Amino acid sequence: MNIIKVKDYPAMSEKACEIITKHMKSNKRSVLGLATGSTPEGLYEKLVHKNKQGEITFQYTSTFNLDEYIGLDKNNPNSYYYFMNEHLFKHIDIPEKQIHLPNGMAKNKQQECDNYEQLIKQAGNIDLQILGLGLNGHIGFNEPKTPFDQRTHIIELDESTRQANARFFNSIDDVPTEAITMGIATIMGSKKIVLLVSGEKKAETLAKVIQGEVTEDVPASILQKHADITVIADEAALSKTK
Ligand code: F6R
């Protein structure tokens, strides 16, 4: 694991932007894997800025998001499609047809998972995957004990994840109970991975991810086995890593 320690959240976003910009400049037709949540918001703001300045273009870029809630449509402000549109897509020059998220409203959910996996394969797999880290060690919505060999699938959300995400909803009861997520095997198939982690709250989990045992109890620990993984974490997040 290549670990880059930065001072704080803005520095983490800046470093991530630098890496992605460099990657995009040398890979015109790049396939990016994207995450939602609070962690990449600063990164997306910076990428939007670079796009507006003309330093990078998304015209030939394809994107695949990690996950989407089941039961929320694109226009629901809590859907991940809506989040991505607000924070990135509507501000950049990416053609709509090159944007991919699992469809949480699909009638046949299993078919949707298989199609998503197929689309990623057809695109030649993800070139660079951006990840955030869940408090319980999840990546995407792969909760503890998800088998490492799973590809895109339907998952029941952990109570702790629903509580962590309840801040975006009116009440915990409104947080969906299921999602579609890329599996660990899908994520590990990415050529390059960048894991972003900020804040003291994640310090204990990050220490397990970096120096603990590789175990399905801590899904992100599998990243130790990836050939090209960069962790960009701030001082607070690394405060419990030796
Ligand atoms: C989001 C995702 C999740 C988040 C994780 C951290 O698409 O896949 O794994 O990255 O829950 O969320 P934040 O960044 O809000 O702490």
TrEMBL record:
Pathway: Amino-sugar metabolism; N-acetylneuraminate degradation; D-fructose 6-phosphate from N-acetylneuraminate: step 5/5. GO terms for molecular function: glucosamine-6-phosphate deaminase activity; identical protein binding. Keywords: Carbohydrate metabolism, Hydrolase. Its EC number is 3.5.99.6. Residues 11-227 form the Glucosamine/galactosamine-6-phosphate isomerase domain. It catalyses: alpha-D-glucosamine 6-phosphate + H2O = beta-D-fructose 6-phosphate + NH4(+). GO terms for biological process: carbohydrate metabolic process; glucosamine catabolic process; N-acetylglucosamine catabolic process; N-acetylneuraminate catabolic process. The active site is at 67 (proton acceptor), 136 (for ring-opening step), 138 (proton acceptor), 143 (for ring-opening step). It is an enzyme of class 3 (hydrolase). Pfam families: Glucosamine_iso. GO terms for cellular component: cytoplasm. Catalyzes the reversible isomerization-deamination of glucosamine 6-phosphate (GlcN6P) to form fructose 6-phosphate (Fru6P) and ammonium ion. Belongs to the glucosamine/galactosamine-6-phosphate isomerase family. NagB subfamily. NCBIfam families: nagB. This is Glucosamine-6-phosphate deaminase. The lineage of its organism: Bacteria, Bacillati, Bacillota, Bacilli, Bacillales.
